[in-house]
Design a protein that fits this description.
- By secondary structure, this protein is an alpha+beta fold.
- It has one domain: Alpha-Beta Complex (Lambda Exonuclease, Chain A), CATH 3.90.320.
- Helix content is about 40%, strand content about 15%.
- The protein has eleven helices and five strands, in the order H-H-H-H-E-E-H-E-H-H-E-E-H-H-H-H.
- It has a five-stranded mixed β-sheet with strand order 1-2-3-4-5, with helices on both faces.
- Strand 4 and strand 5 form a beta hairpin.
- Helix 1 crosses helix 4, helix 2 packs antiparallel against helix 4 and helix 3 packs parallel to helix 8.
- The radius of gyration is 20 Å and the shape is globular.
- It binds iron/sulfur cluster.
- Iron/sulfur cluster binds next to helix 3, helix 9, helix 10 and helix 11.
């Protein structure tokens, strides 16, 4: 989607976020979202544009499953063994349930409304781009049969005028922010607020995804930050829950992903990497200890124990 400048809609200047000094980007973003979501502030033109986009995505969520069997920032990177299985045997990932459509549909709607809200509230001095197309980092394999060659970041806000931006953010705040919105149920929303990103299990690969996009974007912008912003789909009057991810956490995660990809390309089985890393805390995602699990390779993974969990040596594909 093209970059949005506030001058595109000069008639709506009264709806922008009032001048307030926020201590950081997380609180600034939360305030933008809350302010913009108000019926008094949201721009009707933007509601129109983003509801049209949402409708298109809602329809496709209900009518088709688009599970491309390729490694991409949003899939097969949470655990090195997922990457290995996917690269070595692309057909074996378990499909999502046939009735997952409404979950995706609601996610699309909440994303598009969030874009409209933040754009409506964003003050002068900033620009915002949504669904921004990004190339992969230079270490990402150029093998388009097994790896997606581009991705989309939900939102990218940049400081155009540091003088105007300084009314809202500290001088030393990053000059660009990568934002990934995640719609989540009430339990996950609460958990998101307490998650130690970089330490706690990240079974759905939120951090892995963000780290790949951050690596790609930081190649051209060194003054950037990154946020995972939780939307509580069970209680939509709850505020946005943005969590700023420290740069060193993003770098460490990108390095982990990079090693996982290298091992997969070398056809070296890393073993039950996620289980080894998080032990019993991984059971919820891996489907062990009587839990149903969410990993698309949980059955295959359990059926092929590695040398870490069984005698017999490492597997190769
Ligand atoms: S079940 Fe767990 S350890 Fe096995 S591939 Fe999936 S995430 Fe990795």
């Amino acid at each position: 989607m093209r970059e949005f400048k506030l001058d595109d809609f000069p008639q709506q200047t009264q709806s922008r976020l009032p001048v307030t000094a926020y201590p950081d980007w997380s609180r600034f973003l939360k305030a933008l979202w809350l302010h913009g979501m108000s019926v008094n502030n949201i721009d009707p033109v933007l509601v129109d544009i983003h509801c049209d986009r949402a409708l298109m995505n809602i329809k496709s969520s209900m009518l088709a499953r688009n599970e491309v069997p390729r490694v991409r920032p949003s899939a097969f990177l949470a655990c090195a063994r997922q990457t290995y299985f996917q690269v070595c045997s692309g057909e074996s990932a378990e499909k999502m349930p046939d009735n997952i459509g409404p979950t995706f549909a609601v996610g699309h709607l909440l994303h598009e409304l969030s874009y409209a809200a933040v754009k409506s509230a964003l003050p002068e001095g900033f620009s915002v781009d949504t669904e921004k197309v990004v190339s992969m980092p230079d270490w990402w394999p150029e093998d388009y049969t097994r790896f997606n060659q581009e991705g989309h970041v939900d939102m990218w806000i940049t400081v155009d005028d540091p003088f105007k931006a300084a009314k809202y953010l500290p001088d030393d705040a990053p000059k660009a922010m990568l934002i990934d919105f995640k719609t989540m149920g009430g339990y996950s929303y609460k958990k998101h607020g307490k998650t130690l990103w970089g330490e706690d299990p990240d079974g759905f690969g939120y951090l892995a995804q963000l780290s790949v996009y951050a690596a790609a974007l930081s190649e051209s912008n060194t003054e950037m930050g990154a946020i995972i912003a939780g939307i509580n789909r069970d209680s939509l009057t709850q505020p946005l829950l943005p969590r700023y991810i420290e740069p060193e956490v993003l770098t460490a995660e990108a390095n982990r992903v990079r090693v996982a990809i290298e091992m997969a390309l070398e056809k070296t089985d890393p073993g039950e990497e996620f289980l080894i890393r998080h032990e019993k805390e991984a059971y919820f995602y891996c489907g062990r200890g009587g839990r149903p699990g969410y990993c698309p390779f949980r059955t295959k993974c359990a059926a092929e124990p590695s040398r870490e969990t069984a005698k017999g040596g490492a597997h190769t594909c």
